[in-house]
Amino acid sequence: MKYTPNEIEAKWQQYWATNQTFKATNQSDKPKYYVLDMFPYPSGAGLHVGHPLGYIASDIVARYKRHQGFNVLHPQGYDSFGLPAEQYAIQTGQHPAITTETNIKRYRQQLDKIGFSFDWSREVRTSNPEYYKWTQWIFIQLFNSWYNNESDKAEDISTLVAIFEKEGNATVNAVCDDNIAVFTAEEWNGFSSEAQQQILLQYRLTYLAETEVNWCPALGTVLANDEIVNGVSERGGHPVVRKKMTQWSMRISAYAERLLEGLNRIDWTESLKESQRNWIGKSVGASVKFPILSFPKGEEKATPGYMTGGNNAHLLIEKAKENRNNPTEAEAILWNALRGKQVGYKFRQQHLISNFIVDFVCLSKGLVIEVDGGIHDQQQEKDAERTAILNELGYKVIRFKNEEVIGDLDGVLETIVNVLKTQPETPLSFGEGQGERKYIEVFTTRPDTIFGVTFMTLAPEHDLVAQITTDAQKAAVEAYIEATAKRSERERMADVKTISGVFTGAYAEHPFTKEPIPIWIGDYVLAGYGTGAVMAVPCGDERDYAFANFFKGTEGMPEIKNIFNQDISEEAFAAKEGFELVASDFLNGLGYKAGLQKAIEQLEAIGAGQAKVNYRLRDAVFSRQRYWGEPFPVYYVNGMPQMIADEYLPIRLPEVEKYLPTETGEPPLGNATVWAWDTTKNEVVSNDLIDNETVFPLELNTMPGWAGSSWYFNRYMDANNTEAFASQEALNYWREIDLYIGGSEHATGHLLYSRFWQKFLFDKGVVPVDEYAKKLINQGMILGNSAFVYRTEDGKLISKGLVGDQTVYPIHADLAVINDVTNELDIEAFKAHPLYTEYKDAEFILEDGKYIVGREVEKMSKSKYNVVNPDIICAEYGADTLRMYEMFLGPLEQAKPWNTAGMTGVSGFLKKLWRLYTNDEGFNITDAEPSKEMYKVLHQTIKKATEDIENFSFNTSVSQFMICVNELGKLKCNHRAILEPLAVLVSPYAPHIAEELWSGLGHEESISCVAYPKFEEKYLVESSKEYPVSFNGKMRFKLELPLDMSKEDIEKTVMEDERTQNQLQGRTPKKVIIVPGKIINIVG
RNA sequence: GCUCGAGUGGCGGAAUUGGUAGACGCGCUGGAUUCAAAAUCCAGUUCUUUCGGGAGUGUGGGUUCGAUUCCCACCUCGAGUACCA
């Protein structure tokens, strides 16, 4: 009876689907096992043979675990929101939902053909409203949460508000924005709702803020850091520029430490964990303050340029501080609108000018803004006098009433902006006040080298640069800043060798020695890391060393201070050990560890610094200016974001005319005409109805690709639940993924963000575990085997063997026009192929009458015409052969080249397996007792297959199956007692043939849950061993001896052997080493 | 540059508490079967050789009775990361 894979496979695939064989239940007495593949994006290109590699491995594990008696959850679904469908929609006008649906259908067909044991009843798609309802729900949970450093977890925002109401924010230890103004409980309670909302945004785990983002003009959207590779977009390779935009961000930085710590508790590949550690980038060190010593105009006074107070400054400054901490409602609102250069210029609040404290001032424009409460009505005269004095000092004064600020902030701001436009730039004055001293704050991992500080370097973008630069250096500094700004990120990255920088002319004061330290700017200091400033210690840091030497001898660059008892004439001494500190005052004689500790201690003692941990991990931008993504459940009232209540979710993606940004530059959702939120009807209504009273505009951005994939593994546990994202019972039963398989390209994207969300959901008590995947394996890539034809300089095509030394141009040949096994080119097919029309009439130079193509291993890709489609392999050899061959290629985690020719080996194996069970007439099984040899090979196979599957070493178990079948074939084995367990062993790898054989053995039920055969040592016990006999470690011959023979007898027997005498040629061995059961080694 | 991983026949790869290097498969060679081919089966296939052997797991050294496996130095390839203070 012939083995007909196509018939058998179609039959069993149908059977599994009809009987829902692989449907998992959420209640079971069996132990659970959850095995998951990383979420596929259903691309238009379909699957190539590389894609199912991980799916086959996970399917083998899933099927094996079912045999082992586990209740197995093995689901599949689609990460169906994403850029490619949208790009396609822009080009063709086709709705992305339609292309996505088509692509999913094709994916499903392809997956079904390979015979996976997925529980399709739990399929999820991120673009389904029933699914993204819960993505929106999680977003709302994040919005309604803050990170409490005291409890070290996320808490509901209400607990924060409770603290504000009772104590203000001074005592709150939260992960939040930098530079949050301090307020008291009274002030908080007095703030308007908008002011309160503005403040809360600075604490929420997802927040709306103006941030520097990676803007990709070609894609028309922002990208996350992990979506950029080498300065260009990961998808499409388009340039990316920095741009300031108001965006939703995720406060992932709150979880930096826990994300790092959690890595120690999960069994993920070391390289992947290392990537995450690098991405989080923890460094431990100290933050140190260096007072600025000198200021412009050649004056050496320690008086900062923005200090404009008069003679009473020392008294007034306290009052000003008090005022700052106790703003009126109107002041708070206006400050929130002015702070941080929101109107384009820097404003200061409650600032001393002469003997007045003004409410707000923009020093660079000489504009004072006063907000008057009721009290001012009675003192208009005094105000006029005050205004006159301020005018005399060169300030323009404008006044607003409290009601104006509270009621019409937009109008007030418009006035301010207009006045700013008309005011001339005024350089910072140099007043006589006693102001606080201004500091440069740096972060360093080497506080022990504090006495080696030779100069300081600020990032060119650093806020202080403009203020401290001396007149003499001003031109040079400005020119440098301009030049740096022009250089794109990419240039800056490509060119790391060029050293550049400029001296500012200013000096800072060393906190211990009080020596002046010159301040430089240089673009090797990154504005975005730490404080954007470094204390340069050339003797201990390569970059500082290079910088110091480059500017050696120029103004502002002193001799390098060496504080190590080591030579630094050639290079910096950057090691953290092997030195003693010298010329370092109280640190003398210490090494790194002790020095670090002592230095921090002393810095803290004099108030110049403290220990600090810094992370490279930045908050993640969560808005995308795209159509095909989850809409935010957010509408805006007076510019403040409001969440839509849970019961009205999902907010469905609206229909739009076109998928491009609007003419005014708004995201594609700006094209939607029905995209407003009616707060009385609680539904999405036409934009025409927006009145900003009960109907408000909805958010126009959508969520990024990683939103839906950051929690899908939890949804599979209870995928059809409409009441919750999964029931507590289901979550508590399945808990976490036992085995997660996928590509390593997700290391710092999906795999980091999803851990963040999981920890957040854990904090909120929604999920029972804070790490969602116990074990993770990265499958290696399957590489393509590209084919080439060679064009000579005179336009002929020459067969590979004849190329020789001549210059030829290789051209990718489509695998469709070659014989993949013999490498022979089908010349007629080649000529007829639309890609090669220009070679229609070309002359072919053949060898032995054939044109042989060259082969080269490259990434499998459409553009290289080396893609192998699994459908074709299944049709030709069968899915079982494909599954086994993919596993047989090599270790799962390694990259390996595809070679279709190798299929025949596995194909032959399955035919031989089939033949053990059948003869020409049909199944042919005997119930006779098998021989000892048959049992031995079966149990060897049980042992090896079990060990291998537990170690995810699938290639070696396929080898063992081959050995087993070859042996059983030789032994003419058709014994039920052997062939039944063998069918079960093979079933995870080649499930279709296993089912067919199982039914041929007379069973009614599917093989899928039959108990796995048990290994029994007794079948492997041997009475003798063929000992390898080595001389000086080299094996020379073999000798069969009983295993129970004593060492002495073995030695005697070996020495008497003729071959031993031959090897020794009369010499007496110095030593004979005998390891019973293993080896005999004769030395001498 | 740094971090991680890997270097074994013509090819994919196997073998590590240090104990017979090259399992298994592809390819190749020869043979059987066939009118012929495909398919199938059998034998051989690391290199070298004067057929006794000898050499051999990227290179050089070391530890050991014995090293693909452990240690040191170096070379090559791949992946990640990139002025992170």
From TrEMBL:
GO terms for biological process: leucyl-tRNA aminoacylation. Residues 11-144 form the Aminoacyl-tRNA synthetase class Ia domain. A motif ('KMSKS' region) lies at residues 859-863. Its EC number is 6.1.1.4. GO terms for molecular function: aminoacyl-tRNA deacylase activity; ATP binding; leucine-tRNA ligase activity. Coiled coil: none annotated. Residues 318-420 form the DUF559 domain. Residues 932-1046 form the Methionyl/Valyl/Leucyl/Isoleucyl-tRNA synthetase anticodon-binding domain. It comes from the Bacteria. Pfam families: Anticodon_1 (PF08264), DUF559 (PF04480), tRNA-synt_1 (PF00133), tRNA-synt_1_2 (PF13603). It catalyses: tRNA(Leu) + L-leucine + ATP = L-leucyl-tRNA(Leu) + AMP + diphosphate. ATP binds at residue 862. Keywords: Aminoacyl-tRNA synthetase, ATP-binding, Cytoplasm, Ligase, Nucleotide-binding, Protein biosynthesis. It is found in: Cytoplasm. Residues 436-603 form the Leucyl-tRNA synthetase editing domain. The keyword Protein biosynthesis applies. One of its GO terms (cellular component) is cytosol. Belongs to the class-I aminoacyl-tRNA synthetase family. This is Leucine--tRNA ligase. The lineage of its organism: Bacteria, Pseudomonadati, Bacteroidota, Flavobacteriia, Flavobacteriales. The gene is leuS.
